[in-house]
Amino acid sequence: MRQILITGGAGYIGSHTAVSLVNAGFEPVIVDNFSNSDQSVLSGLKRILGQDLLCYEGDCNDRALMEKIFQENNFEGVIHFAAYKAVGESTKFPLKYYNNNLNSLIILLETMSSFGVKDLVFSSSCTVYGQPDELPVKESTPRKEAESPYGNTKKICEDMLRDYIKSGVNSRIISLRYFNPVGAHPSGEIGELPLGVPNNLVPFITQTAAGIREKLTVFGNDYNTPDGSCVRDYIHVMDLANAHVKALEYLFKQGENFYDLFNVGTGNGNTVLEVIQTFEKVSGSSLNYHIGPRRPGDIEKVWANTDKINNVLGWQAIYSLEDSLRDSWNWQQKLGEKG
Ligand code: NAD
Ligand code: WQD
Question: Where is the NAD(P)-binding domain (predicted)?
């Protein structure tokens, strides 16, 4: 079997990518320390896939563990999801973020090199663009100074990967700049599992609709956008998962010393109020929300130009915003049933 290591594979995007990998004929192997995920994800994966996936519980910063994992398997490639991702928390505990997000990548690259594993897909983020001067944003659009330590870890990791490849190592790497991942596996067996109060819009919406939160605050309606609320490019997590398979398959065909990066979005922007209206439509219920003040640090509008990933990787988003919100809601309702 064609084994692929997925670090952070029990997390939101990693678990969905595990499904895409199996569907494409790969054998994903997970390493996760469960700092932001739950063992129940593995049972959900088993129900979808009809098989157990090999999962190592441990930390990617543990070099000895990473060496053991590489020793015990025969990886064709790696997808590195493991990182801390809470923007607000990163401003309070920047060293926690620099330590985890940078060190785990360094240890991974060194381990891959020792074991002769060449191919890596790295999780980057549209956060590197800040508020871009041109929209939709292209890969060639200059990055802005990071708004948060979290965002800076993504910029630094991208730079580290580019410099690593420039040094002439026998490696091939793609960074994927995700826009806003939403939705869940259509089966409702896996989805996003925010710990505590969600920071992100869609889990806050579904938790409000489920009665876990009293009401959603829309962070500002006085932006320069069609209805005054912020615009984002919301991409279904299964579309995003499939982009990783396309990226890996593309890497396998490249020569030595290869580095490139791609936006992964739908190419469409939606306002917060449009997301709420679409959610109300697919759920058939009205959402309790009110307009509040702007959230400090929020970007007014950003959405992706997806020409590069469409043309070079032959990937494009298939799911609509309605599909995404229907799947998020289905997942939330199934979670409720489980208690
Ligand atoms: P997530 O928190 O659900 O998944 C990350 C997983 O990594 C978790 O299961 C966590 O337990 C694990 N992990 C963290 N540090 C680890 C370590 N040192 N060793 C082992 N496991 C560790 O997050 P996600 O939404 O699935 O994001 C995956 C990646 O995509 C991250 O790198 C994130 O920064 C990036 N990203 C996410 C978004 C988003 O909005 N979700 C957007 C852009 C980029
Ligand atoms: C989306 C929109 C909010 C919550 C974050 C990270 C970014 C990337 C993706 C990792 C915004 C509005 C939200 C709420 C609201 N992650 N909103 N009420 O801010 O685009 O990006 O996740 O790389 O780095 O910063 O996503 O889901 O927090 O917000 O009105 O309760 O929803 O103002 O316009 P964001 P989000």
Answer: 5-327
